Amino acid sequence: MAYSEKVIEHYTSPRNIGTLDKNKKNVGTGLVGAPECGDVMRLQIEVDEATHTITDAKFKTFGCGSAIASSSLATEWLKGKTIDDALTIDNMDIVEELSLPPVKIHCSVLAEDAIRTAINDYRVKNGLEALPLK
Amino acid sequence: MLKLPIYLDHNATTPCDPRVVEAMIPYFTNTFGNAASRNHAFGWQAEEAVDYAREQVAKLINADPKEIIFTSGATEADNLAIKGVFEMYREKGNHIITTKTEHKAVIDTCKHLEKMGAEITYLSVGEDGMINLAELEAAIKPTTILVSLMYANNEIGVIHPIKEISVIARKHGVLVFTDATQAVGKIPVDVQADGIDLMAFSAHKMYGPKGVGALYVRRKNPRVKVTSQMDGGGHERGMRSGTLNVPGIVGFGKACEICITDMDSDNKRIVALRDKLETTLLQMEETYLNGNKGHRLPQVSNISFKHVEGEGLLMGVKDIALSSGSACTSASLEPSYVLKALGLDDELAHSSLRFGLGRFTTEEEVDFAIDQVTTAVNKLREMSPLWEMFKEGIDLKSIDWQEH
């Protein structure tokens, strides 16, 4: 199976690999997937509490190239968005941007779940109610 | 000068040896006859070439040339052996014993026969990939007609003790079939000494051409018969109809001849390279060898790199052609059933790479592979949340994973 150029580019030069302090009140963490399924994503956002704007995003992913690229792309898209705007990121946007083939759509779903889980973590820490996962 | 990409997937297929190609060429153009044409020189020459190749093939496995049935490959030979025995010996019984780590060509053939009324026992293997001989013997019953056990495994290279297996089977009057696709040409295989009744193997795994293989069918002590699975002109003693692939068979014969002369020297060199690759890679933290280290083909090494996903790893070693047990590399989305049969958890099965060295692998290539794999594993571990948790001492089993 051939990878798209964008997947290869994100895999080769992933953006925003790293770890934020999950104990900080303005950091939201989303850990999704399972080792036995061959995909685990951890996506973290740091949020400006006054404006609810995402100021930083980091990820670490155990998975195939498409999973790594999906999470790398997600961190790029998250930065600068408010947590409400971030919720509008749809997995199909990721599929389109990275030209993922049908067998890799689950990687984009996982990235979307990671975004929502991270936002929920932040929301709950800051007294907001958790939103349902899609 | 190193030529990229490097091929380290010799258990999938091998390149044709140039000596094999050279032997084949005349049989495409000048000597193109149908080996079954009995009334002119074109046919006679083709038949002569096939006879000669049959001798070369038989010699490699210490068989009589008459016991070699040419097929299109090992998958066809597996089908012919198992289905052919089941049909031929149906009155004696319907029970077949095999293992969970067989190639799909055997497992799926057995599953097909289950629908036709066969009873199949799939023996488990230990964590080193070996079967328990006592379990094998205990599984034999009066209705057992066949034991089907691969000679060497295609994913981990583990070699089953076929000789001891055949002693047990013979004691109970049960036929022994072995899928020896990975073994023949790579290690000495002797159908007499090993007590094998039927054996499938293929040219393209031993530097011969694709599209040609053979089924060895024992002619005496006991005389074994299989029901043909292809109707037609009655070629190959009626067991496999179809015009013979003369150039392919000539190439197969030549490949066998080269294996006889070169096997020892090839293996000495290959095993040294394999051991260098394996020893160096296993020095990395949390890196594990899959399968029995001793009873193993000399040219394969299956290694799990914990907390790194196999397909992601393959992408990082793009200059090396390799296989992985990762689900993502197969259509089924399930990790390798062979590795799972060894009791590996899914994560480790997802993290495996199979290195298959060959006759033309050089030390320079192995050194390059060591470098590229080490770099890729380290890079991916740096971006693996599992590796970070492992380093922090978090037990991954304690986490409530959200499975998809």
What does this protein look like?
The complex is a heterodimer of chains A (about 130) and B (about 400). Chain A has helices at about 5-10, 65-80, 85, 90-100, 105-125, and strands spanning about 25-35, 40-50, 55-60. Chain A has about 130 residues and is an alpha+beta fold. Chain A has one domain: Sufe protein. Chain: A (Alpha-Beta Complex), CATH 3.90.1010. A three-stranded antiparallel β-sheet of chain A has the order 1-2-3. In chain A, a hairpin with a 4-residue loop joins β2 and β3 (about 55-60). In chain A, α1 packs across α2 (about 65-80), α2 crosses α5 and α4 (about 90-100) crosses α5. Chain A starts with a helix and ends in a 9-residue tail after the last helix. Chain B is of the alpha/beta class and about 400 residues long. Helices cover about 40% and strands about 15% of the residues of chain B. Chain B contains 13 helices and 13 strands. Chain B has helices at about 20-25, 40-60, 75-90, 105-115, 135-140, 160-170, 190-195, 245-280, 310-315, 335-340, 345-350, 365-380, 385-390; strands at about 5, 70, 95-100, 120-125, 145-150, 175-180, 200, 215, 285-290, 300-305, 320, 325, 350-355. The mean pLDDT of chain B is about 95. The interface between A and B is medium-sized, with 32 and 30 residues.
